[in-house]
Amino acid sequence: MCAPLSCTYEQIRQHDIVYLISSIFGVFAGLLFGIELLILIILRFIENMANDFSLIELKRRFKDLFICPKKEQIINRCHFILLIVIIFLLYTAISLTLVPKTERVIRPSLFTYQYLLTNYQDSLQCSCSHISIEYQSFLTITSRIHQICSSDFVSNDWIDYIYNTIDPFHLNYTDFRITATGQYQLLASFCQLSRQVLDDALSNLLTSHFIDTELLSYNVLYERIQSSLKEFQMTIPNSFLNSLSVIRQTTGANMLMNMFMTSSKFQYEPAFAIFSIFYTRPLSYQGCNCGLSSKCVQSSRGMMAGCYPLEALLQSTFQCFYNQTCIDSNNVFQALNTSSSTSSQFLTNSTIESILNKLMVEDYSINISYENYFSKCEPLLCSYSYSGHRDILDVTLNITGIYGGLVIIARSIVVLFLKLYRNKNQKVTPQNNEA
């Protein structure tokens, strides 16, 4: 179970009216006081510049800042210097502080999105205009079937060749060649059915819809499709295998006879002088009785012979098809290319049943047109976050908003410091008078 401990969310909303009014008054008061002080400083500077100016005069004036006959002048000058220092320190601290910033891009192009994805991959989010997109509009899936299905061994020419060169009436029932034509016809049917089931399933998949509210990057989209394809591979053989299982169980349960007479044979015994009794006797393969099991088989000429051609074929392998002597010693038809077996996911000794369980599919290849996916998604808005320094205007507005408070704090500090300083200087040290 998931049992979430906590959830977080981000909400974008406007400031309330109280916050706006207080901010405006704070900025207005700070600007008013700052402009007044700035004008006063400029006027005094111009007045002083009109007089003779030298380095010695500059030093003298700096010392005069703290040597004043009036207490109020000392407080004002110290207040001004402390205020400048505090503002400078605050300005530096606020400027260097990293703050989260969120940017928004309306209807970005593919080039813009790729740039944002490269630089802001962790925080980039883009919402799609269309949350349901048909797979076939941006996805192509191709499959590769086992090479036996494209070989001559499932063709009518091969089946006719086997039928014309083999005389089943002079062979023992345990010889594979008796049911060879039937098994090859079954193999051809399996290849055809596998292709048909696969084509129908792929068609249904591609006409279905990919649903997501967010625009996905190529890598994430590829992983999502691969995950869907794996689920697809596991489910598509089910209906085919279920139908095949019903046929096998029905045949075995009813002990049906086949045209090749490989599961049982007719026997007769004379009962009277005129009449005879006919009955069927189940055949055996390596001690396995067809009357008890329909899956009795035994090896014969690289393939399997058994009670029924279907069961014998499913328990056979394709090893014989890679051996020219085994499959056709007359060299009329060429054996399968052994180099192709190395690129197969199936081993040469894999049973045909295990291969059929995967619809004889070697692999799937997918091709994603990300340009088509992007255009179908048609992102309305992309947002991304990053940490950055405040700009000059933002820092100035922040300091301006608290300027009034800084003035009061600076003046209070100066007044307190001067009181402590004067009290220390005015302290009288008592002297002892000796008689």
Automatic annotation (TrEMBL):
Say yes or no: keyword Transmembrane helix present.
Answer: yes
The membrane-spanning stretches of this chain are: 17-43, 80-99, 402-421
Could you tell me the keywords of this UniProt record?
Membrane, Transmembrane, Transmembrane helix
Question: Any idea what this protein is called?
Answer: Uncharacterized protein
Please name the source species: Rotaria sordida
